[in-house]
Amino acid sequence: MILENKFIQQRIEKAQLLKNEGINPYSNDSKRNTTIEKYLNVNSDIAEKENKRDENRLYTLSGRIKLLRIMGKASFLHMEDESGTVQVYIARDNLPEDFYNNIFKKYIEVGDIIEVSGYPFVTGQGELSLHASEFKLLTKAISPLPEKFHGITDKETRYRKRYLDLIMNADVRKTFKIRSKVISLTRRFFEDKGFLEVETPMMHPIAGGANAKPFVTHHNALGIDRFLRIAPELYLKRLIVGGFEAVFEINRNFRNEGMDATHNPEFTSIEFYWAYKTYKDLIEITKEYFKYLFEHLNLPTMLPYGELEINFKNFRELPLIESLTSVGGVPAEIVHDKEKIIAYLKTQNITVKPNLNLGQLQGELFDEFVEEKLIDPTFITEYPVEISPLARRSDTNPDITERFELFIAGREIANAFSELNDPIDQLGRFEAQMSAKDNGDDEAHEMDSDFIEALSYGMAPTAGQGIGIDRLVMLLTNEHSIRDVLLFPAMKPIHEELHNEEEE
User: Fold this and answer.
1) What pLDDT shows up at residue 374?
2) With contact defined as beta carbons under 8 Å apart, do 409 and 312 qualify?
3) Has residue 149 got a pLDDT over 70?
4) 211 pLDDT band (50/70/90 cuts)?
5) 203 pLDDT higher than 70
6) pLDDT at site 205
7) Interstrand relation of 403-408 and 378-381 (parallel, antiparallel or unpaired)
8) What superfamily in CATH does domain 2-145 come from?
9) 206 confidence band (pLDDT: 50, 70, 90)
10) Which residue from 220, 284, 298, 401 could staple onto 391, CB 3.0 to 4.6 Å apart?
């Protein structure tokens, strides 16, 4: 157990000795009156004063000790709160008698959370600091922090112990502040456009709204299985049937699939549905949304992402079939022939299931040869109907749908379409999905008879879209693993990882 660690035992003993001295190592009476950031900003003029100090300005700051240099009659420490870091000067003669030698030097360590009161001054090295006249221990840390200058280099440890990662890495805290701001801005953007934020069930009787393998749970009170939602789509469209004309939901989805740099079993998205609009309207509002985010986050329109530089000045549109040849280099003569596609994939050492239909095979070509090449923002449009079970058919070509997916930096960021509101057509699509499921497709869409009934009452022409918040934040923060934008990503149990390592 962690508490058996000898260094932790030493700190536990110090906490007890503090109690013996009448000092509570876990007190709850902080008198902090400002943050470190505000303190530094307000007192930036101290360097201009004659003696570079102002003993009439008194402040009380609280935070965690990140660096401690103990000397004979005085010490320096760096204290950090959420807003920033400040240097604190602790002098023996400015504290109560014997406190410096008998308490501070013996029991105070890096990692402890403290409170100091004093006045601002600038050191000989030109650093704005706090000259302490009062010192109080708020929380004794019994686990020592990682070594300051190396921090936590192991990513597995960073993800498993995110609290420690946040303590040691200010850049990590910055990433999650940006994530929070993205969600807040997203909510504000759609509210300003007249959308109503709603909440829909997280446990569904049918795994619907997308093609994905669900998580299964059991509802004891009802005595039936339920599925953690893979998408809120079918419930949000029921609200359009009910008379709401613009709704959105920001929430979690759950898909029982693999994990990699861009996939986590639970993820956050926004889905929004807009009556009397088409997917073309969604293209325009998506452009507005990105412009809004970039302006409020003060991001450059030429955005660096790893070794890439993404141009957000222009968004292009490209039909899927056209992209296969113009971007993917697929021979034009094969893209409408199932057998030729299968033969071509074999020449590329790519094996596919023989029972895939033409639309699914065209999707395979796109995934293999096009997607990763789409660096600048690109709306891929006109998806085959076979891989778009909830999208409206094109009025000019019934084999394709009024759908787009937005790709940036080689990854899908959004999925949208003019919604299918013909209940008979929707029933046929569901039946085709059920046939695919019977043939081994465990991600095929389930039959949802209640949704068919809802459509039978009439749903206004509607456009709907989903945007993956996690991938969007990755893009805006230059992070290349979804785990770096999730506070607590899914991880294998430690004992399972150790077992796997032993086998290797």
Assistant:
1) 98
2) no
3) no
4) confident
5) yes
6) 86
7) antiparallel
8) Nucleic acid-binding proteins (2.40.50.140)
9) confident
10) 401
User: Mean per-residue pLDDT for 205-220?
Assistant: 85
* Displacement of CA 371 from its chain's centroid (Å): 22
Q: How far apart are CA 413 and CA 270, in angstroms?
A: 11
The whole-number pLDDT of residue 446 equals: 73
Domain map of the chain by residue range?
2-145, 168-328+370-503
Task: Calculate the CA 395 to chain-centre distance.
Answer: 38
Give the chain's radius of gyration (CA, Å): 29
φ and ψ of 316, to 5 deg: -110, 160
Residue 209 contacts residue 391 (beta carbons within 8 Å): no
Question: What mean pLDDT is predicted for residues 222-241?
Answer: 94
Work out the angle at residue 279's Cα, subtended by the Cα atoms of residues 274 and 282, and round it to the nearest 5 degrees: 65
Token reading at 412 = 């899908």
Q: In sequence order, what are the residues at sequence separation of 6 or more whose Cβ sits closer than 8 angstroms to the Cβ of residue 233? A: 208, 209, 210, 271, 390, 464, 466
Is pLDDT of 196 > 90? yes
Give tens-digit pLDDT for 273-310. 999 999 999 999 999 999 999 999 999 999 999 999 99
**What letter would DSSP give residue 103?**
I
Give the residue among 240, 242, 302 at the shortest CA–CA distance from 272: 240
Taking residue 413's Cβ as centre, other Cβ atoms within 10 Å add up to 20
| Helix residue spans in 370-440 (DSSP H) | 423-438
- Residue 297's nearest CA partner among 477, 44, 86 is 477
Task: Print burial letters for 109-124: b (CB count within 10 Å at least 16), e (below 16).
Answer: bbbbbbbbbbbbbbee
- What is the edge-to-edge ordering of all strands in the sheet holding 196-197? 196-197, 246-254, 266-275, 462-468, 411-418, 403-408, 378-381, 316-319
Measure the CA–CA gap between 406 and 35, rounded to whole angstroms. 41
Concatenated DSSP letters of 203-232 = EESS--SSS-PPPEEEETTTTEEEEE-S-S
Q: Dihedrals φ, ψ of 341, to 5°?
A: -65, -45
- Taking the whole predicted model, whether its pTM rises above 0.85 is answered as yes
As a whole number of angstroms, the longest Cα–Cα distance in the chain is 90
Q: Are 67 and 110 in contact (CB under 8 A)?
A: yes
Residue with tokens 């000898």: 6
> What is the third-level CATH fold of 168-328+370-503?
BirA Bifunctional Protein; domain 2 (3.30.930)
Pairing between β-strand 196-197 and β-strand 246-254 as defined by DSSP bridges: parallel
User: Which pLDDT band holds residue 504 (cuts at 50, 70, 90)?
Assistant: very low
425/225 Cα distance (integer angstroms): 29
- DSSP-assigned states of every residue in 433-450: HHHHHHTT-TTSPPP-HH
**pLDDT score for 90:** 96
Distance CA 352, CA 359 (A): 13
Strand partners, 481: none
User: CA 257 to CA 443: how far, in whole Å?
Assistant: 10
Identify whether the C-beta of residue 59 lies closer than 8 Å to the C-beta of residue 118.
Answer: yes
